[in-house]
Write a structure and sequence with these properties.
The structure is a homodimer.
Chain A lengths: L15 H11 L7 H20 L4 H11 L7 E2 L6 E2 L1 H14 L4 E3 L7 H15 L3 H22 L2 H5 L3 H17 L4 H12 L13 H21 L15 H5 L6 H4 L11 E3 L9 H12 L7 E8 L1 H7 L7 H4 L3 H11 L9 H4 L2 H7 L2 E5 L8 E7 L4 E6 L12 H16 L1 H12 L8 H7 L3
Parallel strand pairs in A: 5-6
Antiparallel strand pairs in A: 1-2, 3-4, 5-7, 7-8
Helix pairs in contact in A: 1-8, 1-9, 2-4, 2-19, 2-20, 3-4, 4-5, 4-10, 5-6, 5-8, 5-10, 6-8, 8-9, 8-10, 9-10, 13-16, 16-18, 19-20
């Protein structure tokens, strides 16, 4: 027999579900300044490149083969591939591919990767609704805002507890964005959020497996389905997010409601979105950046006697693998990161391929890297000195790595990253065309054009 | 930057995911005694009747209309309806309908409704795999066992925290059952469980809305999809259930692993499954049962001066609504339950229709019911005395209501319930045919036959 005790309960939460539903359904189109507008374009471009780049990865193959057992209709595009599937399945698969390389965007305050769930859901939906680029951007900004605000409300307790916060907040973010794109009224938008609130996705134990990128994909698919259900009259609790046994109090002991309500519609969390220049964990980035700067200064691998690296203890704790055996392990090796940065001047997905990681020349260089803990150095910084065979020393101190909020990727950096990811999949010419379409996103009459081009030739 | 602290962590959990995968993939077919085998038939019959009974409910209409936007292929049947959809969507919709009346089975120890997620997933899958009834029963017993054992491990903390335990454990149960039906090997079964472990569904705040029955439907759909993903090589953590940041430790503070491992493959949780005789919360059942017994003894509503009801305080706390205005409110009124029991001798979905609840004759009788708290009476019991106008008194004490484990529904009771639910949807003749097919489940060569008949004529 049910016993109605409650572990903890805040019965005085503001009406978060209604407040968000009102915001989602009524915020004016382009109701933000140019910097937010520009960030939305950057977020979309970065996400699209990541999704196309991983289009032929075995995780995407496996997911697509599973979905093909459902004999789906050809309704929405799979990015970087010829196949089409129903829109919920396209949201799933594009969400998986966009996070497969762990190279997508990061809302640094919560480490949510917000575009995965949100953009995957609305791009798939837009092929059916024939939405414009303007509508797409509005939905993207608002959906990301909803996901990240809920993340701010629960972080860090929720994440510490074991939830992969990208998927747990992503379902609601995707439902919010799809409700906006479907032009649902406030009441139905609240229902869409409510249905989504019963479907947080993702445990951190899955990190290192295909189920990690499944999380944004599953969230995108569930969020889109929630909006479709609400559109057709399916109901949910009007307090599904904030009630004592609603989503937020059930999956987090920290519930700071003001993180959701403060400056809602005025401050947009997409403004705090960052893009990875390097295809690995963010703690290695300052070290890679420093070594890439050594290369730019003319330091050649064969001239190096040793590299002295000084970093915060957290860097070695998380990424201290000295002799990574393959690409996956290399993502947890600051030593490999430094060697790749010095040898190639970059550390994209290619520089983490198995054959690069096991290249004897790279290993020789990697073994010259000596790392020392220095907690006087911030964890977002790195201090690198190259000792050359001719007795010279070259010193680089990186305070904020490229890709941080303080030192963001330039638009040109993002374009280069897009090319690195997409050229092998859809050709350089198509990548150029897509970059142009992305920068012109607000001018697109119909999102189908981008979807069509992104399938490749 | 991610901070890797953990709220709580048990690093010494047994290898639950592997243990269950081994059990699911290798337990011998019909590896249980006849009582378990019979209970599986009863569970299936009861679930099928509930699903057919609600087939035309507005929640099912809404869900189907949403799914039709995906233009699904005609792969699997929707019970009690003509439409077919892809198998994941059929799992969703049949899961919704089977729980819409809240009239399905209950694993009393955890209040999980286990057939909803499990049977909905495997029946939909069986139409594609052309599985036999034998294979279906094996998958049903094992899937329910997995869901309920995980429930036992987490209950009651997990439920108290806010999770609707049917949907949170149901995804894994459905994945287990589908893995069995797909004949996945141990490794792939572990992956299916692992993928499912990232998708617990359902918050208790949704009770009273369509999203409550969505929970078993969503779990069925997600569990089936997890098994299909694993079949095609999608990977997950091999410790996804038990690891410190795996499913169970993330969504429950109580983690009693022995509940999962003890007597695994020897004791089957389906043995503890119960079936509701009355379409309302289980605390009202003893009172309804007592009043139905009054009717059976010849007590007529018009002869009654008053009904004195003595029950445990929990009964009035949960279902003490004196003047329910409609069918939904009546489900929380022990007064309505008593009146319906005495007037009709039953309290199925029909006796909770609005027009019955507002019938002046029923209200007159309801107003004669006087309830008194007596905590010396167990919450699963009820003491009822009818004071008749002629001065006589008729006393009934119900220790264990019909439908409890101690006083289970007979097979004949289940057949009557099936008819009450299904006759209005698929005709009495078809219901008779389905009852026979269900009792002969183990002899079915191909489950498609039942699916076809259950669509109605």
């Amino acid at each position: 027999m049910a016993i109605n005790t409650q572990v903890k309960a805040d019965h005085n939460a503001p009406a978060i579900t209604q407040i968000l539903a009102n915001y989602i359904s009524s915020h004016p189109s382009k109701g933000w300044d140019d910097s937010v507008e520009h960030e939305a374009h950057r977020t979309f471009l970065n996400w699209l490149g990541c999704a196309i780049g991983a289009a032929t990865h075995e995780s995407v193959d496996a997911a697509l083969h599973a979905i093909q057992e459902l004999d789906p209709t050809q309704q929405a595009s799979i990015l970087g591939r010829k196949e089409k599937v129903d829109m919920c399945s396209a949201a799933l698969i594009n969400g998986i591919s966009s996070h497969t390389f762990d190279f997508d965007d990061t809302h640094l305050k919560t480490i949510i990767h917000p575009a995965g769930p949100v953009a995957s859901a609305i791009l798939a939906l837009s092929e059916k609704t024939k939405s414009s680029g303007r509508e797409m951007i509005d939905a993207l900004v608002i959906g990301i805002d909803v996901a990240c605000r809920i993340g701010n409300c629960m972080y860090p307790d929720h994440y510490d507890r074991g939830w992969h916060i990208t998927g747990s907040t992503g379902t609601v973010g995707a439902a919010a964005a799809c409700s906006r794109l479907l032009k649902l009224d406030k009441e139905k938008t609240a229902m869409a959020i409510g249905i989504a609130a019963s479907q947080p996705v993702g445990m951190r134990e899955q990190f290192g497996t295909m189920t990690k990128p499944f999380h944004p994909g599953g969230a995108a698919s569930a969020g889109l389905r929630s909006a479709l259900l609400a559109k057709h009259g399916f109901t949910a609790s009007a307090k599904a997010l904030e009630a004592p046994r609603g989503m937020i109090q059930t999956i987090s002991t920290k519930c700071d409601w003001s993180e959701i309500t403060d400056e809602l519609g005025q401050r947009f969390e997409i403004s705090f979105n960052a893009y990875k220049p390097f295809a690995c964990g963010i703690v290695i980035h300052p070290s890679i950046d420093a070594c890439a700067q050594l290369k730019a200064k003319g330091v050649k691998p064969e001239d190096v006697q040793k590299i002295e690296l000084r970093v915060h203890s957290l860097v070695l704790e998380l990424t201290g693998k000295k002799t990574p055996a393959d690409g996956l392990q290399a993502k947890f090796s600051v030593y490999h990161g430094c060697a790749a940065g010095l040898m190639y001047g970059k550390a994209g997905e290619e520089e983490f391929l198995d054959h690069v990681v096991t290249d004897p020349k790279l290993i020789e260089l990697r073994d010259k890297v000596n790392a020392t803990v220095d907690d006087s150095i911030h964890e977002a910084s790195a201090d690198v000195t190259a000792f050359l065979k001719n007795g010279e020393q070259v010193h680089i101190f990186v305070k904020h790595a490229i890709g941080s909020l303080e030192n963001p990727m330039t638009d040109k950096n993002l374009e280069e990253k897009f090319h690195n990811l997409s050229d092998p999949i859809v050709s350089k010419e198509t990548a150029d065309q897509l970059i142009k379409l992305c920068w012109d996103l607000a001018k697109q009459d119909n999102m189908s054009k981008i979807c069509q081009v992104a399938q490749g030739k």
